[in-house]
Automatic annotation (TrEMBL):
Record's protein name: HTH cro/C1-type domain-containing protein
InterPro entries: Cro/C1-type_HTH, Lambda_DNA-bd_dom_sf
UniProt xrefs under PROSITE patterns: HTH_CROC1
Record keyword Zinc present: no
Chain ranges passing through the membrane: 6-24
Protein's UniProt keywords contain Transmembrane: yes
Any one Pfam family match given in the protein's UniProt record, by short name: HTH_3
Length: 107
C-alpha cells in the first residue's frame, strides 16, 4: 500500500513538473495575451469589456494575465466577445522513458 502511494505521489509531482516545464508560457497566458490584443485593437478598455460580458475589470485582467480560475461560462463569454470559442485538445502524457529527456539530471 505504501509503495503504491509513493508511486502515485511521485507521478503526480512529475506530471506537475512536466506541465510547468512544457508550457513556459501556458496556454491560458497565450490565450489571455491574444484576447488582450483583440480588446486593444477594438480600442476597448477592460472595464468596457467587463460590462459587455456582465463581469468586472478584475476578472478581465485575470483572464488576460492567464491567471483566471473562475467559471468557464465567464471565460467563454469573454472569448465569444471577440469571436472565439472554447475547445479542448487531448495531450499526450510523457512515458517514463521520455522523462529523462524532459528532466535531465543537473550536476
Amino acid at each position: 500500500m505504501t509503495v503504491i502511494l509513493v508511486i502515485s505521489v511521485f507521478f503526480t509531482i512529475m506530471t506537475n513538473i512536466f506541465v510547468k516545464k512544457l508550457f513556459v508560457m501556458t496556454p491560458r497566458k497565450e490565450i489571455g495575451k491574444q484576447l488582450q490584443q483583440e480588446r486593444k485593437a477594438q480600442k476597448m478598455s477592460q472595464t468596457e469589456a467587463a460590462e459587455k460580458i456582465k463581469s468586472n475589470r478584475q476578472t478581465i485582467s485575470a483572464i488576460e494575465r492567464g491567471v483566471y480560475l473562475g467559471s468557464i461560462a465567464t471565460f467563454e463569454r469573454y472569448l465569444m466577445l471577440f469571436g472565439y470559442s472554447l475547445a479542448i485538445t487531448k495531450t499526450k502524457m510523457p512515458t517514463f522513458e521520455e522523462l529523462d529527456d524532459l528532466f535531465p539530471m543537473e550536476d
